[in-house]
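haha ok so turns out i had the wrong file open the whole time. this is the CORRECT one, sorry everyone. sequence first:
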Amino acid sequence: MSKHYSALITGASRGIGRAIAERLTADGCHVLIPTRAEMDLRSSESITSYLSSLHEPIDILVNNAGINRVAPLENIQRQDIQDTLQINLISSLQLIQGLTPAMIKNKFGRIVNISSMWSVISRAGRISYGMSKTAVNGLTRSLAIELAPFNILVNAVAPGYVLTDLTRQNNSEAELEKIKDAIPIKRLAEPVEIANVVSFLCSDNNTYMTGQTIVVDGGFSCL
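then structure:
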């Protein structure tokens, strides 16, 4: 990046979020990675408190944090829905509301919302998660229209299967091989491959792309 931008990334302690933080740091950004103790996305008050503690404008926001509680229709609990929407959607909107005034003043901003391929296709047990990520795509489009006059570009990245520690924990080697076989590219994504897309969207090279949901899934959603 040609300028020294300040970036805030949620959920960057591991996996895709960590890869994004490392890539934006390598790009020359000053990256802020709030811990849960500093900003609990389950709490509106905690988010407000963290925003009030910032002493510099944020140029780039990456809303990466999210939860996925898998359950069939008959087992879905109201609290699961509320928690999923709060962390995956509402907290992102609150951060955007808090950070965009400075972006508007500076006539520059880049916002990337991490969505999921499960926002464009689906499978059993993904009701709460799919609802939240589909809403993230809609939020992205609406914000893009409102913020475009201020040179604030808003996009979403929708990863497919990514080889993270959590993916390894939740799937046996046999299950991972089955997943690989179902993906046209025949492998899972590495976290850095998602980070590379985010890096472009946040960079000075992106001057015109906004309101888009970019699916990065090795062709899985094309089947």
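The chain has seven helices and six strands.
again sry for the mixup
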